[in-house]
Write a structure and sequence with these properties.
It is built from 6 helices and 11 strands.
């Protein structure tokens, strides 16, 4: 599906006339559809670490704490508990919050495990690295749609752009947002949107979690290591 076919499907569902185009169309309905299509795409990107949006970043550690020029251009956020020093087989826990980081630095803790904080587009690691280590983490990309030629994008730019996130989910999201913004009954649309969101997320992450990674590696983990849901749709439906 393209932006155009997604918006056509939305129009058919909510009972408005299909616009001839979306991008550069000055009609109220077309502009509203475009705004909501971007809103839904961005919110869905932020709501879950979709496998289509996850990437692995490998880099060589710099001596000391600050690791500069590491984050990719399409970076949105870290996938929790996926940052490893592969040279030493050590988990680098985080990103930790600023309070914990400043406490560690102020009290000069000697930690048995690595931790990191994300600040000013740099990564800071403690204890300091010797340099030369192979470091790897997974992250979620902010590019949730793409051009017809496959160029990754963080917003719709042409009518023939396609979604990276499931396009039926985006269609249901736009339907809900349109009805809600228009003051029309939207409870049924919200329920369908949430149900399909839950089906997709349940299929992406297995439910069985019988062993923690800490049981295997002896590290200090806060969760199973599975990509965590950083938020969900319940908060705004």
């Amino acid at each position: 599906m393209t932006l155009m076919t997604i918006c056509n499907a939305v129009c058919d569902e909510i009972g408005i006339v299909r616009p001839a185009t979306i991008i550069s169309n000055t009609s109220d309905d077309a502009q509203k559809l475009l705004r909501l299509a971007n809103k839904v795409g961005n919110r869905l990107m932020k709501s879950f670490p979709w496998q289509d949006l996850r990437e692995e970043k490998t880099f060589t550690g710099i001596s000391g704490s600050e690791q500069t020029s590491i984050l990719p251009d399409d970076f949105d956020r870290f996938v929790p508990e996926t940052f490893w020093n592969r040279s030493g087989g050590k988990l680098i826990t985080g990103p930790i919050n600023p309070i914990e980081w400043q406490t560690i630095k102020a009290l000069s803790y000697t930690l048995p495990e690595y931790k990191f904080v994300y600040r000013g587009n740099s990564i800071y690691i403690t204890p300091d690295l010797a340099g030369g280590e192979t470091l790897v983490f997974e992250y979620v990309k902010k590019t949730w749609c793409q051009s017809s030629g496959g160029t990754a994008q963080s917003a719709w730019a042409a009518d023939n752009d396609t979604g990276v996130i499931d396009e039926e989910l985006m269609t249901l999201g736009i339907i809900f947002e349109f009805l809600d913004a228009d003051g029309q009954p939207s409870q049924r649309a919200a329920a369908q949107y949430l149900e399909y969101f839950n089906q997709l997320t349940d299929n992406e992450i297995p439910a069985a979690r019988t062993m923690l990674a800490a049981d295997i590696f002896g590290g200090n983990r806060r969760d199973t290591g599975a990509p965590g849901v950083q938020s969900n749709l319940v908060g705004y439906l």
